[in-house]
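Hi U.,

Before I forget, here's the chain from the pilot set. I'm dumping it here mostly so it's searchable later in email.
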Amino acid sequence: MSLPIIFAIDDDRQVLNAITRDLKTYYRKDYRILSTISAQEALTSLVELKNRGERIAAFVSDQRMPEMEGVDFLQKALEIFPDAKRVLLTAYSDTNAAIKAINEIRLDYYLTKPWDPPEERLYPVLNELLDDWQGGFHPDFTGIKVLGYPFSSDAYHIKEFLASNLIHYLSVDVNAEEGKQLMQHNQLEIVDLPVVIFEDGQVMKSPAIMDIASRIGLNPTVKSEIYDVVIIGAGPAGLAAAVYGASEGLRTLLIERHAPGGQAGTSSRIENYLGFPTGLSGAELTRRAITQATRFGAEFLSPQEVKQIKLKSNYKIVCLENGTEINTRAVVITTGVDYRKLETEGIDKFTGAGIYYGAANTEAASCKDRIVYILGGGNSAGQAAMYLSKFAKQVNIVIRREDLSATMSAYLIDQISATSNINLVPMSEVNGASGNEKLERICLRRVDTSETTEMPADALYIFIGAKPYTDWLGDLIIKDEKGFVQTGREMKSMEHFNKLWKMPREPYVLETSCPGIFAAGDVRSGAMSRVASAVGEGSMSISLVHKYLAEL
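Structure:
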């Protein structure tokens, strides 16, 4: 297959020659560089390239051109190659137009001319954009294939695991032509489903998640006899703690029971995170954080579940479900929260077969031209609604309140209001679910009148409540009445604190009732449920770990 393309356009021949030269100097091994001075000629070429099945990775366009402005060109190019990255070359006077383009055409970056030296101002920007493009674009699929029925609960859990761990895969319907061929060629039976076929041709029939993890290298063994800090949970707080711990010279181990990123990692778009004016997906944020942590030397163990923490002198022993025991001097608990289970008739039956908790990304394509319901009024629900609206015929947001103003950020409310196929269903709750092999109908109940209505539904995404993942902690750590971990000096007045705390000083602000065990992020009582605050607490916890280790 031919190399993907970086397409440059500028009506100034001298500038076009300069950008083409710099692009070819750095990227000629991995990309073809095409360029033109005419916007109309470029659009004609794009249609031809599309018909030939070519791939465009990025557009680099000047803003001020006589035939049409760069923003207008990128808008038209976006219709032909929607996945290509978009970079606008601007003069200082064009900054306002570039900022406006961020919202209108999802501009990825605007670069002020001149861009010298390219090693500092051009290549780092394009490298990051092209890495993102490479990570999300699959022209001819050659990776992992998951073969099964579209609404199989077992197949869904496999796909959700792969997607959450940033492993790209192709979902193949067993009833489609490709699915039938795979069944025949590999001599598979219905009883074998779901089946995972790896890039090298190996076939796994009805595999366990742990077997898949081992096969793709996600489940390494512990490398050190003792660690300075073990971080339990790889959400934003845990990832931040891993980055800071490893970068500051601590022997750092990060353990995750399912997939990195936490609830934030499943978000289709985070638009209010500092430093990303165009927003970024939870998967992008997770990928960057994992890369950053491992580059500094942090070890990552996943999927592995911690069942207990034991104490031995000044050491902590982290016990895994598989029997492994890990010695460490300090622990940071960042296990976050799970969405609360909806205890309503029919929900369990169709979970994974039309009903999903959290992430909308995995099954979004199956919602094309279908009717989708979202239960919940928080930011995660709003982000899911916006993402699903690109696929679904209609997206209905079910909330118990009269409107979203008390639970959702204003920017999301504005986006939802401006999206024609998103409908708000206020003062209502889901009272039941029914169907045959998959979800087909849901029952809605008005909270003010108790009136019930049965509605057709192809999918229901649940974003309600926040249940901390802390049951495994036992009595070693003080928790509040909802199960969130208590930290800091406020614990002094609580029952059992004096029995657990044996240090002459007060607990540090993120320290639990057990010295040397800290909590950060959503799992902590009183924490603010925002990605930025979780990242802040995760990094702060490492500073407190240093103080604790200095006492030993």
